[in-house]
UniProtKB/TrEMBL annotation:
InterPro entries: Cadherin-like_dom, Cadherin-like_sf, Cadherin_C, Cadherin_CS, Protocadherin/Cadherin-CA. This is Cadherin domain-containing protein. It comes from the Eukaryota. The keyword Transmembrane helix applies. The keyword Ribosomal protein does not apply. PANTHER family: CADHERIN-87A, PROTOCADHERIN 2 ALPHA A 1 PRECURSOR. Residues 75-102, 117-216 form the Cadherin domain.
Length: 314
């Protein structure tokens, strides 16, 4: 019986009374009301009635993400309590809220300006420079496009729309100006595009001047390379010297050990070249060494350890 389906119900209960001595059985019927007590045996049921699975990143606080309805077939807050859970997946949509940032060119004061020098005798297709930029937005909002917003001579310079590379379109002539100003517009691909600009000043120099500038740069690089080589040689020389000193010390230690070992284990010889022989024995708490075949010496008693003595005889 479940109280969920039946809360109150009238039941007819028949009570039978019988007596063994009576032939006729008396039957009486009564009505009783039975109340079924609730038991906490149903978990809460959660139903999502409305869901906004895609929320823009600039949504204000309090934006409704989902509407849910919760029901429980039980009527009390029973013990132990039962629970349910539901998973809601929400995708945060990127908004075009970041403007492109110019990485190159950048001047010393932080503005997006730069100066490039190229020789006058370069051919068409010569790479002048490359404008680099990035956008913090993702997806289509982060795609960048480059365009020439301002240029002194459109027949001289061309800009790659996707890479930002600036190249010459033709060779320079004597009538071309020595300085050209290029303003590059960088914009993203958002619904409402954000943009930034960079300025490149191109100076056309004679080949000799260009080579002189290249020589200065090359000399600076060579000087830096020479400094690195000098420090590297000093380091290698120091390591080699320490290694040689270590080898010499190890050889000296080995030679000294060999000399000590030889002198320790060689037998003593007489002045006439004959070897000395000895016999060791112990008597009581004394230890004796009897040597024979050696040059005559006076008998001496030498303490060995504690009360031990050594007697030396011919």
């Amino acid at each position: 019986m479940s109280r969920t389906n039946i809360k109150e119900q009238w039941l007819d209960v028949w009570i039978y009374f019988s007596l063994a001595l009576l032939i006729v059985t008396n039957l009486k019927g009564i009505s009783a009301q039975i109340r079924v007590e609730d038991v906490n045996d149903n978990q809460p049921e959660v139903e999502i009635t409305s869901l906004s699975s895609r929320i823009p990143e600039d949504a204000p606080p309090g934006t409704v993400v989902a509407l849910m309805g919760v029901t429980d077939l039980d009527s009390d807050s029973g013990t132990p309590s039962l629970s349910s859970n539901v998973t809601v997946n929400v995708f945060i949509l990127d908004q075009n809220d970041n403007a492109p940032v110019i990485l190159y060119p950048v001047s010393s004061n932080g503005s997006a300006e730069g100066v490039e020098e190229i020789p006058r005798n370069v051919n068409a297709g010569h790479l002048v420079t490359k404008v680099r930029a990035y956008d913090a937005d993702i997806g289509y909002n982060g795609w960048l496009l480059f365009s020439l917003q301002e240029v002194t001579d459109h027949s001289l310079f061309g800009l790659d729309r996707y890479t930002g590379r600036i190249r010459t379109l033709r060779s320079f002539t004597e009538t071309d100006e020595a300085e050209h100003k290029l303003v590059i517009l960088v914009k993203d691909n958002g619904n409402v595009s954000l943009s930034a600009t960079a300025t490149v000043i191109v100076k056309v120099v004679e080949p000799k001047e260009a080579f002189a500038a290249a020589d200065v740069k090359s000399a600076t690089n060579d000087e830096e390379d020479n400094n690195v080589t000098f420090y590297l040689m000093i380091t290698l020389g120091s390591v080699s010297t320490l290694f040689l000193i270590s080898i010499i010390v190890l050889i000296a230690m080995q030679c000294s050990k060999s000399t000590d070992y030889t002198s320790k284990y060689l037998q003593e010889t007489n002045y006439d070249g004959t070897l000395c022989h000895s016999i060791q024995y112990r008597s009581g708490d004394k230890r004796y060494i009897v040597a024979y075949g050696c040059v005559a010496h006076s008998v001496e008693a030498l303490p060995i350890s504690g009360s031990s003595l050594i007697e030396e005889v011919r």
